[in-house]
Specification:
rod-shaped, 99 residues, mainly alpha
Length: 99
Amino acid sequence: MSEQHNSELHNEVSELERKSATAARLFDIRRIIGGLFVVYGVIVTIAGINPSDADMKKAEDININLWTGLAMLALGLFFLGWLWLRPTVQPGEEPEESE
């Protein structure tokens, strides 16, 4: 009975560890920040592609929406690239080393 109980407990702990690792990867802050910056960057860039004369006059002939949108897009892509290059490593897992 003790052997069976230990086996069931081990299986349950393994399942919880797998779910925890999945949740940690899903809610990695780099994914959230990168995704939001990419979405907002695309929206602001689209708004800046064809500015009105009044918008340009307010900003002293600098297309602020376009430049801000492109900067937000670049920052978002940086975060997503960072996530792709350095994925989340759970405690107890050995990080993969490339030589």
